[in-house]
Amino acid sequence: MKHVRTRNAMLSLMLLSSFGLAACSDNGNQTAGSSSGSPAANNSGSSPAAASPAASAEEEVTLRFYFGGDKKSATDEVWKAVSDYVKSKGLNVNFVINTIPFGDPYSEKLLVMSSSGDDWDLNFDGDWLAYRQMSAKGAYMTLNDLLPEYAPNLYKVYQEQGTLAAATVNGNIVALPWTMKMNLRPYVKWRSDVALAANIQPEENSIQTVEDLYAFAHQLQDAAPDQKIGFPAGSALMEFFRTRDELLDLSSMGANQFVIDLNDPTYQVKPIEQLQTYRDLAVYASKLYQEGIINKDVLVDKEDAATKYRNGKILMANSSHEWTYATETFSDPSFTSSGSLLYPDKRHVNRTALANVVAINANSRHPDRVLRFLDMLETDQTLYDLVQYGIEGKTYVLEDGMAKYPDGMDSTTSNYMEWGGQWAFWKPQFMRPTETYGEGFWVKEAEFASEPNNINSPLDGFTFNTEAIKNELVQRDQIYSELGVQIEAGIGKNPEASVDEYVSKQQKAGVDKVVAELQKQVDAFIAAKQ
């Protein structure tokens, strides 16, 4: 998972920079994390060379899969081994693995391929990539009948988790979500070695509000005046304030900078700039910027906060439960990290099942074979290890059950492990400990997401149809890029006046029309669920 920093993981996921996205997420535990309804695992040994009689009896076909990121050097060799293994189990398929860079290139490529009638078989997607556009245009195959027939074990897991509703459009199941449970409510983490040296290390989880964080940031600034603090700004700071006020961000559903109050039983859609939440953020951001707590280069520095934090360029970064407790891979082994959960008494929605999905192309000629492969992946540890980690001894090694890089290899030089798009295939019952995620990590992650204040979104699976308001939304985004971004970064000495100007411009651009249309669709979605 490149879990933190990172709009909606490209055809798969990606975790939040101090100004950007948190990422998708990445890895875990072998058997201790099995869900109660998971089928018994097949833990057979290495794959036989010869295909089984059943595989030989059916026609051999080639499945074309698309994932995100760069194609790692051993990918084709690994998936040849995957093919040999599934043939030995009766599934006569070969695989061609293609990759597309994440971000806009990924989404745009999928949309173009779909429009051209391309008949690839499966791809990675997510609500931060092209899923909403692809599903809205009917680019993904309806799986209502095929899924229970060809992937009964996977279907059973979905039934127990109740996650298929999120991937259902107009009654049609159009994607296969990951089976993980997570929550990305905000944490903040800091260089504890610097804090300890200055004798200012706070207790774990004692920093719970923006005010607490502000005071602590000043202590760090006094202790290390020559270093950048890196106080979270922009979208990360906005998430702190949304969490404080228990607001659900609708941006991933196609409505940028709109929210609903999780305590409002009528789910009224509100433009964030019209709420006190936004004014409070603007005032705080301005103060932090003027005092040098928010870096002066915040709008021009495009390096994500997680990378800067690991490399010692900043002393503080926004985070999540996952990336606060995962092993931090600092560039300097003397660096250490601590973290704290912000606003623990506030409700926050769990990560959507749509964060990382795989979907079958509506033009695929072999959806039955794809589903049979996915069903095997749900029940077979050996196959799971091949797909996730690759070939033992070449792309990974096992040490006491932990999947590690071979000697001389790490995340930057990996020939297969940590490949982009793997997240949709994560299975808690099979995930092995890694150097990043220790034993039992994903069990604890699921337990955290199950705490009372971590709830499922009332709008999970909902997507706005913005056709009737597309011109107004273009104007809204333009005004945001011209003025809203600067307000959230703290630039400008009169935040109240800047917010007034911003609200006025958005109203002139038709925000009331947008709210009316969005509200109509939310009301219809909620009514259909009751």
From TrEMBL:
Keyword Iron: no
Alphabetical keyword list: Signal
Range of residues in the leader sequence: 1-22
InterPro entries given in the database record: Bact_solute-bd_prot1, DUF3502
Region Disordered: start-end pairs: 28-53
Biased composition (Low complexity): 32-53
Residue intervals of the DUF3502 domain: 458-527
Protein name in the entry: DUF3502 domain-containing protein
Lineage: Bacteria, Bacillati, Bacillota, Bacilli, Bacillales
